[in-house]
Amino acid sequence: MQIVRHSLRFVLSCVVLVTSANVAAAQTPSGARLLVLLRNASALAFVDPASGMVLGRVPVGRDPHEVAVTPDGSMAFVASPGEGISVIDGVAAGPPKFKTTAIPVPGKTPEGLDLSPDGRELWTVTRGDGGVSIIDTASRKVIQSFSLKLTDANRVKFRPRLHQLGGTEISRRSRR
Q: Are 94 and 56 in contact (CB under 8 A)?
């Protein structure tokens, strides 16, 4: 009896997973793109999620580590530990309209990044020295930098009213 219940539970789980996958695929907008970092090629690939076809590539800094895209889909930011932040314009327009520029950030190796929910700030963290830089996305300039004095601050993630850096949470008030 126990085997029958486990088998039935497994079959129902599979049906739910397949149904969820089909619904998610059906809801993917026609212009959607999957952005894939190609670390060995130092590039960002744009992939059609439905077909898996690579629509285009754009060169970025050496050894790209993380990517973030503005809420409107117009710009992508790529952290490259050896070279700073690459900015890719024209993401929504698609290839061949990409334009890439670089933003140098203070610190040893910029590795983690995340955009504020409104897309106005890009926060970056540097591994090795625990540095944090805040970039104004409109001007593409570092507007503030500070140190957490951590040796392994390599991730940043926005959460409502709180920013989390490498496991350390800081509020907006604590950085002023």
A: yes
pTM score of the predicted model: 0.71
Residue 51: pLDDT over 50: yes
CA distance 154 to 79: 11
Amino acid, single-letter form, for residue 21? A
Give the CA distances from residue 119 to residues 7, 114, 147, in Å, rounded to whole numbers and listed in that order.
Answer: 47, 9, 23
- Domains of the chain, earliest start first: 63-175 (2.130.10.10)
Examine the pLDDT at 148 and tell me if it is beyond 70: yes
Most confident among 14-18, 32-36, 142-146 (mean pLDDT): 142-146
CA distances from 116 to 76, 78, 109, 156 (A): 13, 15, 21, 11
- Strands (E) across 26-174 are located at 34-38, 43-47, 54-59, 66-69, 75-80, 84-89, 99-103, 109-115, 121-127, 131-136, 141-147, 156-159, 162-165, 168-170
- Quote the CA–CA distance of 24 and 100 in Å, as a whole number: 31
Start-to-end C-alpha separation, the chain: 63
The CA distance from 132 to 134, in Å, is: 7
The band of 139, judged by pLDDT with boundaries at 50, 70 and 90, is very high
CA distance 40 to 30: 29
Identity of residue 110: P
